[in-house]
UniProtKB/TrEMBL annotation:
This is CBS domain-containing protein. PANTHER family: CBS DOMAIN-CONTAINING PROTEIN, CBS DOMAIN-CONTAINING PROTEIN CBSX3, MITOCHONDRIAL. Gene3D superfamilies: CBS-domain. Residues 79-134 form the CBS domain. It comes from Pseudonocardia ammonioxydans. It holds the Pfam family CBS. Keywords: CBS domain. InterPro entries: CBS_dom, CBS_dom_sf, CBSX3_CBS_dom, Diverse_CBS-Domain.
Length: 147
């Protein structure tokens, strides 16, 4: 299975924010509805370019140092600028390894430089569990057929 298979199931909607929005605005968007874990920062006006990513973790970590003043800062002040991405052609195993290595829960999906989706660790786990269930069913059927 590939990232494109996950996007085919969940859709390609990406929640974005502008770098000059306040952290308060970003936090409100994260809280929902629907509640989400991360926003792609895209200032190009077309939601295609990835300029950064801001997650719940980014906000909580800055809250520890900036307190309530954090809410008036801009997204640019707290966002992760070096964004780890994936492509639609990457396998679930490759994406799992990337998420584990970098300790990221969300990866923007970029195809030929264009933002085309977002996947979360929850999406990846859900897909992997479905694969494992299918594999177990096939193995069970093979076992039953041979006895």
């Amino acid at each position: 299975m590939k990232v494109s298979d996950i996007l085919r199931i969940k859709g390609d909607a990406v929640h974005t924010v502008l770098s000059w929005n306040t952290v308060e605005e970003a936090a409100t968007r994260l809280a929902g509805p629907p509640p989400i874990g991360a926003l792609v920062v895209s200032d190009d006006g077309f939601r295609e370019r990835v300029d950064g990513i801001v997650s719940e973790r980014d906000i909580v970590r800055r809250l520890a140092t900036d307190g309530v003043g954090l809410m008036k800062l801009t997204v640019a002040d707290v966002m992760t600028r070096h964004v780890i991405t994936c492509t639609p052609d990457e396998s679930i195993a490759e994406v799992m390894a990337k998420m584990n290595r970098w300790r990221h829960r969300h990866l923007p999906v970029v195809d030929e430089g264009r933002l085309c989706g977002m996947i979360s660790i929850g999406d990846v786990v859900k897909q992997r569990l479905a694969e494992m269930s299918t594999e177990a069913g096939v193995l069970r059927d093979i076992y039953l057929a041979s006895h």
